[in-house]
Amino acid sequence: xxxxxxxxxxxxxxxxxxxxxxxxxxxxxxxxxxxxxxxxxxxxxxxxxxxxxxxxxxxxxxxxxxxxxxxxxxxxxxxxxxxxxxxxxxxxxxxxxxxxxxxxxxxxxxxxxxxxxxxxxxxxxxxxxxxxxxxxxxxxxxxxxxxxxxxxxxxxxxxx
Length: 160
Ligand code: FES
Known about the structure:
alpha/beta, Molybdopterin biosynthesis moea protein, domain 2, five-stranded mixed beta sheet, three-stranded mixed beta sheet, 8 strands
């Protein structure tokens, strides 16, 4: 049996097999989710807000709880889409705004231009570059360090 999940604010609906995670529904709706940690509940790139129907999702597990505690934009409605399984109807998901930083080359290509949206840290979701800010070479150096830090963190938690 499948459950219907609404995606806000893009006003889309998706069908998710009962007990499958929200992430499968987002990807099935062609929403670009970075899933930096590969769906292991260790990053912030699949962080979503549940506007309605929290009771129709599986309960928080320990890893999800721990990761959510590190996400700066986390609130009572937060879940990780790769960890939350859909068990009932009525779920409405809101996708946080901003874009997760993943590839330094993509950002380098934007030097001298203004960021079109907030660029977010893939582990804790903090804003690395604010929307409207000019992208400079010195920012690239910092982002490079961030990229190294993220890959090291995820490599060290490989078998976690
Ligand atoms: S993809 Fe990393 S926590 Fe869900």
